[in-house]
């Protein structure tokens, strides 16, 4: 049993040895195969690179050849053309000498061809002119058709309005209703008083004046018609002025129309609209109330305008009570009051929302107030005061883009009404518009608004202070630009630093000026300070394009300072911004990595002191000369000298080992790593 166990142990040991030998043989074979594959791949890649290089060279030669051929063809064509012209000229002279009649016919033929080409050009121009005239005539006819359609629509609307007027009440019914309304009016309720007033107006008859005196249409109709027609013409002229934005002149023409026809509710209503544009809400309110009194029926638009004037005066309760009166009047006249109820609800919702918005703003809950802006701005009764509140909220939160959109919108709405007069809301609007542009770094545009305020309102101290500040900032920036152009970099740095110190909190302006100060620092060679500025710019920029630009500038400064690793890190940050940025960053990263490798690797051509195109004989002679010079046996001085000689001899030997192999030498010359 012991012998059997020993035998089995020996067999197991033999088997393990055989398996170990097989495994080692397999690993050796795989290692050899891997090495062979790598060599084949390297040779294939080198051949591929050579083929690619030769293809590029062939394409370049083909392009140069095609350009040369094209230039030669062009020269040949020009020479042939000149030769043909010379030949034609000589032929014409010879024909003129030999046969004057044929020469004259040829000249006539040429003149005919020239006249024909001119005639065709004139015909083409005439045709184009006729087409333009036909288009203009068609546009004019279309405008006339539209005007006629509008006139017919206005007539139909007037006819429908006349149909809505209440029918005349008989004498018996009138006396009964008058006595009943008078008894109810004595009770003191506003509704009963309004009914009594409407019934008493009906009792005076259709031909009564507001002062109670009647007139006869047959006796005085001609004079009334003449005054009404003149007032109508004045009103049309005023409408044109109002449409052009000249509201002050329109108001003067409406005044003349009212003098000619003081019973025209339309003149009062339109003058009130122009006064609203001029932000003269009190006068507009009086005109709207007069128009309501003069209008024979309940006109919803008049009540809307009157309520808007009350809203402009911040008399929100009066606006609400006005709509209640309008609803009562509509019920009395039998007119549908659904629209009035809708407008009343709109007004009430606006009043509630505006009061809540003002409360939030004054209590400091600006972020909550911001969420209410979209709801309030959709209401049709929103006015300039609410718009100013929106701008202030966005400005306080630092959302200058939203404040710019809001201020631009309200400035466009109020631009025409600011031509003649400049009220307090308009002054605030111009001031905040300038402040928003200033915060966005648009100093030239902001200075226009502040300058306008200083010219028109000299007592506006805030606008004067901002105007002076912007002028001084512009002077410093201009001085910095001039110094930068004249390459006085220290003066430019001083000017830009002073401009930044005047307004260090304005991020957009600081970014713009720091960009120029970086150029000045780079011109001085102070790349470290430029890197500090660029770091702040990268941290505070919002747009991807700006971040990419600042990072690329910082990478260039790091590269100038010799800090290749930091430059590579900056380009890697750029690579993560977007796909396009990655495409632009990839070649720069490769270039910097090659530069880093070239700094770390040895220049074996320089070690042996030979050129890149040196022959094998030159390399061998240089190696022998240096090897004899730096051999350790010939440098047996101090220990340090011996050690330095050994290091030098090893470097020389390594350089010769690389350069004597043509393939390794070519790879080393191309900048590849051959270690």
Please explain how this structure is put together:
The chain is mainly alpha-helical and 675 residues long. About 9% of the residues have low confidence.
Topology:
Layout: H1 2-98, H2 100-163, H3 171-185, H4 190-203, H5 217-243, H6 247-260, H7 265-277, H8 281-294, H9 300-312, H10 316-333, H11 338-363, H12 366-377, H13 384-397, H14 400-414, H15 424-439, H16 443-456, H17 461-485, H18 489-502, H19 507-524, H20 527-540, H21 544-561, H22 564-575, H23 579-600, H24 604-608, H25 616-630, H26 639-659, H27 662-669
Short structural summary:
The chain is mainly α and 675 residues long.
List keywords for this structure.
single chain; 675 residues; 27 helices
The helix content, as a percent range, equals: over 70%
Instruction: Give the radius of gyration.
Output: 47 Å
How much β-strand is present in the residues? under 5%
In DSSP terms, counting alpha (H) and pi (I) runs of 4 or more, how many helices?
27
- As residue ranges, the low-confidence spans are 163-223
N-to-C series of helices and strands: HHHHHHHHHHHHHHHHHHHHHHHHHHH
């Amino acid at each position: 049993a012991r012998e059997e166990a020993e035998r089995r142990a020996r067999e197991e040991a033999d088997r393990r040895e055989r398996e170990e030998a097989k495994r080692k043989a397999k690993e050796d074979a795989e290692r050899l195969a891997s090495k062979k594959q790598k060599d084949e791949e390297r040779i294939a890649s080198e051949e591929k690179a050579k083929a690619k290089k030769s293809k590029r060279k062939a394409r370049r030669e083909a392009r140069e050849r095609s350009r040369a051929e094209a230039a030669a063809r062009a020269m040949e064509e020009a020479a042939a053309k000149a030769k043909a012209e010379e030949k034609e000229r000589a032929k014409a002279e010879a024909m003129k000498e030999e046969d004057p009649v044929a020469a004259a016919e040829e000249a006539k033929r040429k003149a005919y061809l020239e006249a024909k080409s001119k005639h065709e050009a004139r015909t083409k121009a005439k045709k184009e002119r006729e087409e333009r005239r036909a288009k203009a005539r068609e546009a004019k006819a279309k405008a006339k058709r539209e005007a006629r359609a509008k006139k017919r629509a206005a007539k139909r609307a007037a006819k429908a309005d006349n149909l809505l007027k209440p029918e005349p009440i008989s004498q018996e019914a009138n006396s009964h209703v008058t006595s009943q309304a008078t008894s109810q009016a004595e009770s003191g309720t506003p509704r009963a008083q309004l009914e009594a007033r409407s019934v008493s107006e009906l009792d005076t008859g259709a031909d009564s004046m507001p002062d109670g005196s009647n007139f006869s249409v047959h006796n005085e109709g001609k004079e009334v018609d003449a005054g009404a027609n003149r007032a109508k013409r004045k009103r049309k002229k005023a409408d044109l002025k109002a449409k052009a934005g000249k509201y002050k002149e329109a108001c003067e023409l409406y005044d003349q129309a009212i003098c000619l026809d003081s019973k025209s509710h339309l003149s009062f209503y339109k003058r009130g609209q122009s006064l609203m544009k001029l932000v003269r809400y009190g006068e507009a309110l009086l005109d709207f109330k007069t128009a309501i009194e003069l209008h024979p029926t309940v006109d919803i638009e008049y009540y809307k305008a009157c309520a808007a004037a009350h809203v402009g005066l911040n008399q929100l309760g009066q606006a609400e009570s006005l709509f209640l009166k309008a609803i009562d009047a509509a019920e009395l006249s039998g007119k549908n009051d659904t629209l009035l109820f809708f407008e009343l609800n709109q007004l009430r919702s606006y009043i509630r929302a505006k009061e809540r918005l003002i409360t939030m703003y004054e209590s400091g809950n600006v972020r909550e107030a911001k969420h209410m802006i979209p709801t309030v701005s959709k209401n049709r009764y929103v006015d300039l005061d609410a718009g100013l509140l929106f701008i202030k909220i966005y400005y306080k939160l630092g959302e200058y883009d939203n404040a710019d959109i809001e201020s631009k919108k309200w400035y466009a709405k109020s631009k025409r009404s600011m031509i003649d007069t400049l009220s307090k809301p308009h002054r605030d609007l111009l001031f905040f518009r300038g402040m928003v542009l200033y915060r966005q770094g648009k100093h030239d545009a902001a200075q226009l608004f502040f300058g306008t305020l200083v010219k028109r309102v000299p007592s506006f101290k805030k606008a004067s202070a901002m105007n002076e500040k912007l002028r001084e900032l512009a002077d410093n920036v201009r001085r910095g630009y001039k110094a930068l152009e004249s390459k006085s970099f220290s003066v430019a740095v001083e000017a830009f630093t002073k401009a930044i110190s005047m307004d260090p909190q304005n991020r957009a302006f600081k970014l713009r000026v720091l960009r120029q100060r970086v150029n000045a620092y780079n011109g001085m060679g102070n790349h470290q300070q430029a890197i500090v500025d660029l770091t702040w710019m990268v941290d505070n920029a919002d747009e991807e394009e700006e971040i990419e630009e600042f990072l690329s500038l910082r990478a260039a400064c790091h590269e100038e300072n010799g800090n290749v690793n930091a430059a590579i890190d900056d380009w890697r940050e750029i690579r993560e911004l977007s796909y396009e940025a990655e495409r632009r960053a990839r070649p720069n990263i490769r270039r910097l990595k090659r530069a880093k490798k070239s700094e770390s690797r040895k220049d074996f051509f320089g070690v042996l002191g030979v050129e890149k195109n040196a022959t094998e004989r030159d390399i061998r002679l240089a190696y022998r000369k240096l090897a004899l010079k730096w051999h350790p046996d010939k440098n047996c001085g101090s220990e340090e000298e011996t050690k330095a000689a050994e290091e030098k001899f090893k470097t020389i030997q390594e350089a010769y080992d690389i350069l004597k192999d043509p393939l390794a030498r070519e790879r080393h010359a191309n900048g590849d790593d051959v270690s």
